[in-house]
Amino acid sequence: MNIAFIAHDRKKEDIVNLAIAYEHVFKDKKLYSTGTTGARIMESTNLKIHRFLSGPLGGDQQIGSLIAQNEMDLVIFLRDPLMAQPHEPDITALLRLCDVHGVPVATNMATAEILIRALDRGDFAWRELVEQNKPGLA
């Protein structure tokens, strides 16, 4: 199970608190993150996270690449809807890739908690079934 963490600046404390609260769920998963978000989570937990570049420097796109290669199972992207982001096209592209490839994405704390609780219950087995029955792309 591959999970990506992304958070805008004003949401970094929220994603760290989420990681602390659900560390027991994340501990056996393969975790990825944009640079600063991953560093903040690792400072506050015992989780090991593969960190990409900061979002504005291309980290969103690096995670998007894993989504496009069907190597991501869940994205937790706590967005700040009240602040304009200089890399908004990258954010839109990332969300579009999640839609195209059927990757669940949480953009707020409420949805993140629902998806994490489903993950904890084992409700993500459907991702494996979808992959087994997905026709190859030409």
What does this structure look like?
It is globular, with a radius of gyration of 14 Å. It has seven helices and five strands. It has helices at residues 12-21, 23-26, 35-44, 59-68, 88-101, 109-121, 125-133, and strands at residues 2-7, 30-33, 49-51, 74-78, 105-106. The chain is α/β, with parallel strands linked by helices. The protein starts with a strand and ends in a 5-residue tail after the last helix.
**Sequence of secondary-structure elements:** EHHEHEHEHEHH
CATH architecture, by name, is 3-Layer(aba) Sandwich
Strand order of the largest sheet: 3-2-1-4-5
Mean pLDDT: 90
List low-confidence stretches: none
CATH homology superfamily name: Methylglyoxal synthase-like domain
Question: What's the domain count?
Answer: 1
**Strand content range:** 5-15%
The main β sheet shows up as:
5 strands, parallel
Main structural class = alpha/beta
Helical coverage, percent range: 40-55%
Q: Would you give the CATH topology?
A: Rossmann fold
Roughly how many Å apart are the termini?
Answer: 26 Å
CATH level 1 name? Alpha Beta
Number of contiguous helices: 7
Q: What is the rounded Rg? A: 14 Å
Beta-strand segment tally: 5
Overall spatial form:
globular
